[in-house]
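Figure caption, in words: inputs first, then the predicted bound structure.
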Amino acid sequence: MASRSDENWWTFSIDPAVRADNSKSRFTGEMDVNPELPGGLRRLDYHDYLGLDLLLGSQRPSSQIPDERAFIVTHQLMEIVFKLVVFDMAVVSATLGSFASSPRLATDTLDAKPDDGFWRPALTAAARISFACRGLLPSIMRVLSDPSDADETFNSVEFHRFRENLEPASGFQSAQFRLIQRALGKANLLSVRLFPADTYRRLYGEDAGDTVRVDDPVILREDANVATPAQGEPRERAARLEDDANAALERLADVAGAQPDPNGPDAVEAADVNRAIVLLERIMSKGRGRKTGAAAAERFREDLTAAASRENERRSGLRRARAGAYVLRRRAPGSPLRDILSRISAADEALHGTAHDSFLSVHLRVTRERLRQIRAYAAKSGEPEPSIGTGGGGIEYLGWSQRYLIPLFPALVAYRELGD
Ligand code: HEM
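Bound structure (protoporphyrin IX containing FE present):
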């Protein structure tokens, strides 16, 4: 996915001394976007700076159906916002990592003397992450017509007229979304083999197991390395957000001389794991042949049980971080660190939570409405009823994972359970 065209994107500095000095922060030579020409002339204009040739030349509909243009642009808007969220996560993560290695910054935080220059980029980045997840992403999704809105902005009959041209491509293959989930404390969730690979296997001609992880290359193709960045890749910084936040809290606990909290964050409950399994088994036994359904459910049971136990192991290592979270709330409630962690925590809830306006709730309503309208049309016209989705549990899968699976793996677990 990375290409020359976004080469400068990942080279950023949180160092106040670099940011304050134009000659240090600006790219020069070959990388300079606006070189000075002889006679003091310049070449850069709006079109060039924003790469409009590439950006506005990247909409390739498969049909003459007008609504397909809205469908493409909606997904592209989402991906652009995801890109900024991932970048902002890298800024926050780098800042928390740097805080974790500096006893001075931790002492300043406890003394209510934050270094404004150090914190500024992470504060705005965390605010953008929260704003994107609360506002932009759910709003953009609504272009595909949320039935709670007064006017219909996208129509399912029209949708159905081009949707089958795109098989098996879908938003389910958004690798940046999976990376965001990884950054938000869901690495263990992503390790569960859950999703049926048959459609992808059949249409891409690739071999894979019966069910795969949602970030498996059979689903994500060349973007698999975006969802799971290799060590040293720029996106790996974003993927480490959860770990860097915990390291920052640990540093605070050390400087305050706080003892590890013997309780630590709550464990994932076996009963919740079991409920998720039983409910998925029900969906699977309806959706597939009894034998394949039973085998897939068994694999899911094994993987989710193992993932919950790895998650509990991880949480038991967060007792110092939990102590740091108490120190932060008691001794530095107005600090930049507290604001940043609260914003990240709010972003996770806005993206994955069950509130009416969360990203996944709007997505679910849009999806359900598409199915309802198409069914009604099929019944009226006598045409066969089409499927929605890419061969997984479809809409039932979406509702189930949002309610019973994703909540088992919240972001910033050492920090958020303490309440505001
Ligand atoms: C007409 C609009 C849409 C419909 C009908 C739709 C349908 C679906 C369905 C049925 C699934 C479940 C997986 C599957 O069976 O393929 C899914 C998953 C997903 N879709 Fe959409 N979708 C729509 C728009 C979008 C948009 C605009 C995005 C933005 C990137 C998106 C992102 C996702 C993601 C990230 C998942 C995975 C969710 C998870 O695993 O928790 N979808 N979608």
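The chain has 21 helices and two strands.
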